[in-house]
Amino acid sequence: MMPIWTKSGKKHAVTLLKVQDCHVLRYVSKEESGGKTAKLLVGGKNVSPFSKPESAYQIFKEAGVPRKQKITTFNVTDDAIIKPGTPLYAAHFRPGQFVDVTAKTIGKGFQGVMKRWGFKGQPASHGQTKTHRRPGAISTNKASKVYRGKKMPGKMGNIYRTTYGLKVWRINTKHDIIYVNGCVPGHTNCLVKVKDSKLPTCKKYNTNPPFPTFFADGDEKLPEDLFDEEIFQFTDPSVTYT
Amino acid sequence: RASSDGKPAKFQPPPKPVIIDKKKQRAERRFLSPEFIPPRGRTDPLKYYMERKDMIQRRKVFDIPEFYVGHVLAVTTADPYANNKSNRFVGICIQRGGKGLGATFVLRNVIEGQGVEICYELYSPRIHAIEVLKLEKRLDDNLMYLRDALPEYSTFDVNMKPESRLEHEEVPVNKLQVRMKPKPWSKRWERPKFNIKGIKFELPESKMQEAQKWSKPWLEFDMLREYDTSKIEEKIWREVNEELKK
User: Fold this and answer.
1) Shortest CA distance from A15: residue in chain B
2) CA angle, A226 as apex, A15 and A184 as ends, to 5°?
């Protein structure tokens, strides 16, 4: 995470996300998948092909792409279909857009009820016998059963969670880095899924994206760094108020 | 000239001239600002490289002078609520923290009897100027104990004139031993954990002996805590210098 300053002098914290060897692997049509829209399977980060049997990476052979560590699905409309085997770059997103980021949270192992669900526990003194971090009562007398989904101790973390509505401040096309506002679930160097935001208030900021994606061999030549309008770039002189 | 016994003096060749190459002497003194050195961790070095690019970019536009803890600095920042929209603060640097773009330094001064500490961000765009008024290193890296020292050690004249910079010589070390206010202090500065050399402890011997009970003499031999930064520093020093010359 890094600080970033706006032209008015305010500081925001920013997470750097690197787009590492992303390729489109397969196109699944609407009828085949049985959902409402067509799907595109996308693979991230290259990984050694020798740790799994050959049958495991049939998809990668069809697309003509080295074996990837993670495969995700994106729901896509029919006019945004991309041919399998095309690489995806960070320039797919533009500064000023809003984005949802999904990742597996940091695993905390088996945790008690105070850490996992935020229960208050019991006082440390005043006669408490061996009861300081326990859940206390788990149901009422009339119910005479414990309801399904009762908050109890268990394995915490290591599940997929999404943060919605994160602003993209800056894009580096040379190293394929996206600078995203705020924090993101997951530990450092973990794999993360970045999508256009589904929030209704962010729809007006997501206009005119590169559609269906940014093609590196196309006519568009982008500069190395793309900044949002409000960012203070370090080539400018210091901020003054008038 | 004749010697004392009448014979002519043996020919003494003139002493060889000693050429002091000043450029070499200057290059030997290297200062790499501590926020460039990446902390030990599992982050991708690409992240530190991107941060360093931004830091160098800022240093090209705005000159950040070389300073240590113990220097007296004057910082002018942009302030939307001040009369002239700018604010000047003079103080002694008591701490330099943070790595990368978020590097900070804390300046302390006593104004009209009230101690004031302000934490500035080195790379914040609101800073207009940093001037070094007095150059001196102290015996410690962290002068937080000045909060519990007598106020005369933290007062500096707001209209102090900048001292002339010694041409590429060693930064002088001030071996001042500071006198403290009576206990209780905000932290127990006599304990070996803080390793403070700049306080003149006027505590009885028994208290000093009791403080040594918390010493951890095995810490300096702990191999897992070793972090040798010499090679990293050299690489970064070369990279930073090349970029700044462009």
Assistant:
1) B47
2) 15
Query: What is the tens place of the pLDDT at every residue in A89-148?
Result: 999 999 999 999 999 999 999 999 999 999 999 999 888 889 999 999 999 999 999 999
Interchain proximity A2–B126, CB inside 8 Å:
no
**Which chain A residues are within 8 Å of B85, Cβ to Cβ?**
240-242
Name the residue range of residue B72's domain: 62-215
Q: How many domains does chain A have?
A: 2
CATH number of the domain at A43, please: 3.30.160.810
Q: How far is B165 from chain A, CA to nearest CA, in Å?
A: 25
Residue B22 lies in a domain: no
Q: Which domain holds residue A206?
A: 1-19+89-106+153-235
Contact (CB<8Å) B61/A18: no
| Mutation for B interface: A232, A238, A240, A241, most B CBs within 10 A | A238
Q: Supply the pTM of this predicted model.
A: 0.86
Q: Test A241 with B57 for CB contact under 8 angstroms.
A: no
Per-residue confidence at B9, pLDDT binned at 50, 70, 90? confident
Does A175 sit within 8 Å of B85, measured CB to CB? no
> Does residue B97 belong to any structural domain of this protein?
yes
Residue A117 resides in a domain:
no
**pLDDT tens per residue, range B112-126:** 999 999 999 999 999
Q: Among B10-14, B155-159, B177-181, B202-206, where is mean pLDDT lowest?
A: B10-14
CB contact under 8 A, B43 and A189: yes
